[in-house]
Amino acid sequence: MSKKQLLAEMQSEQAAWLALLDEIGEENMTQPEVAGGWSIKDIVAHISGWRRRTVLRFRAALDPTIDMTPPWPAEMGELDEDDDVDEINAWIYKTNRDRPLADVLNDSREIFQQLVTAVNALSDEQLNDPQRFPWLEGERLTGALIFGHFHEEHEPDMRAWLAKVKQAG
Question: pLDDT tens digit string along 61-88?
Fold first, then answer.
């Protein structure tokens, strides 16, 4: 895949994400119980928290001297166990739950731009070198892959919740 294609896919995925958030509406984003007690705002913060790590990974693919310290506290480790993921998710939630919605949404947009910048800094050859991205575990790099966690873990809950809200309204 060319960088141009990847960036176009990422922009398309981001547009769909923003369209979903627009459809939900900011007035509904802090209501609890969308998924496991989380609000839409909490899901946005969660995705942003993990995307920060993705940005670091892309930057490190270009410059191996980049500090790869994850954005969460060091004692949480480097995801050796599923328990680490739950602990990190809890930390992301706790860190962001009292932040204003506008700040969480702004972070989401900024982190996506950082991701675009990091991908844009790589050449087509680098983007197509599977050895450069060991964290992809051999998967082909696509916009859908970058948004995969959202599609698999959060989009169904968000859309089901939105359908209930619309039906009740």
Answer: 888 898 877 777 766 655 554 558 888 8
- Return the axis-axis angle of helices 101-120 and 3-24, rounded to nearest 10°: 170
What is the phi/psi pair of residue 35, to 5°? -155, 115
The 3-state DSSP composition of the chain as helix, strand, coil percent (nearest 5) reads 70, 0, 25
Kindly give the parts of the chain with pLDDT less than 70.
74-83
DSSP state of 132: G
CB under 8 Å to 54, separation ≥6 — which residues? Answer: 115, 146
The whole-model pTM stands at 0.90
Which residues, including other chains, have CB under 8 Å from residue 47's CB and lie 6 or more apart? 108, 149, 150, 154
Q: Which DSSP string do the residues of 38-60 spell out, in sequence order?
A: B-HHHHHHHHHHHHHHHHHHHHH
**Tokens 């082909």 appear where?**
140
Delineate the domains of the chain, giving CATH numbers in brackets.
Answer: 3-168 (1.20.120)
**Taking Cα atoms as reference points, which of 21, 41, 61, 51 lies closest to residue 111?**
51
Name the amino acid, one letter, at 134.
P
